[in-house]
Amino acid sequence: MNSIAVKDLQKTYAGALVPSLSGLSCAFAEGKIAGLLGPNGAGKTTTISILCGLVEPTGGSVEILGMAQTPANREAIKRVIGVVPQRIALYPQLTAFENLRYFGNLYGFSGRPLKDKIMHHLEAFGLEKAAHKETGKFSGGMKRRANIIASILHEPRLLVLDEPTAGVDVQSRSMILQFLRDYNAKGNSVIYTSHLLEEAEQICDEVAIIDEGKLVTQGTPSGLIGRHGHCRNLEDVFLHYTGHAVRD
Ligand SMILES: Nc1ncnc2c1ncn2[C@@H]1O[C@H](COP(=O)(O)OP(=O)(O)OP(=O)(O)O)[C@@H](O)[C@H]1O
């Protein structure tokens, strides 16, 4: 089974002159860590927003863990997918614990089991001492780690993260990457976006490079590097396919 499969995905935002996605097709096998890579404006966030049902595509089809993304499957998909957005989705005036209790309640958890679950994750992410601190007072790395916990309370089989390691220090990044490896080792699928190609090369079983709303290539990092004699690493592969011109 695939973790996700999108076919001929199209998206033109209301009022936009050019499409953000123009026929994107790609699929990742279940149980892998997959990277969705591309330059600024390639359509990564749009794709992720469509995968998690926040943005309606203008065309094409989406399957999540074998389920077509239809209104009838919305609830079933919500139970198996966890989404960590690029922007921090926490209430700054609430403590970490209060934020996580709120998100846990949304998934139907409450009482002692929810409290234990929250404390377990806070500890795993090195945030137990900050449990009762307002998240507005957290550092960038602490906010990112708490943001991830909010998305895994229901133990989704598929975790989708939009630039989870952007702008965090080395320690938080290392903790987040180890978490992704451990979460994947339990049999869960992970799809994530990043501009850090060295990181993606290390952590991803498979990557898809997209540009201008289309797939340009897909494969394992070593397979893609080996395909081109002049490419020493994933960054060389990325530049080979997307060029050196800067993007708006
Ligand atoms: N809400 C929106 N309304 C109009 N255009 C949008 C909207 N969101 C994104 N776009 C446009 O769609 C295109 C793809 O954007 P998207 O954010 O999906 O790319 P991205 O690959 O995630 O880029 P980045 O690496 O900069 O985050 C861009 O041209 C962007 O300006």
TrEMBL record:
Transport among keywords: yes
What Gene Ontology molecular-function terms does this entry list?
ATP binding
Matching InterPro entries: AAA+_ATPase, ABC_transporter-like_ATP-bd, ABC_transporter-like_CS, ABC_transporter_ATP-binding, P-loop_NTPase
Q: A Pfam family for this UniProt protein? A: ABC_tran
Q: Is Repressor one of the keywords?
A: no
Q: Which Gene3D superfamilies match?
A: P-loop containing nucleotide triphosphate hydrolases
Q: Per the database record, which ranges form the ABC transporter domain?
A: 4-237
Record's keyword terms, sorted: ATP-binding, Nodulation, Nucleotide-binding, Transport
Organism's domain of life?
Answer: Bacteria
> Which family does the UniProt entry place this protein in?
Belongs to the ABC transporter superfamily.
The protein, known as? ABC transporter ATP-binding protein
The organism of origin for this protein = Chitinophaga pollutisoli
